[in-house]
Design a protein that fits this description.
This protein is an all-alpha fold and about 80 residues long.
Amino acid sequence: MSEIDRLEQLVQELQSQFAFHEDTVASLNEALSSQQQEILSLKEELRLLKQRLKEQGDSLADMSQAPADERPPHY
């Protein structure tokens, strides 16, 4: 095998590896983008849940401030 043939084979192997790495990077980029979108969605959902929990806590606090000696309406 001549030196040129050996170099051509090495170049072909490098091109093959490069193509594989490009494909891998593209796949990882797509997965990362998808995960980032899901994280943003989950953050928004968590924000809404925190807001709802705070509103419920405020509502319970308002209810507990009712006078203790007040009789329920069914008495």
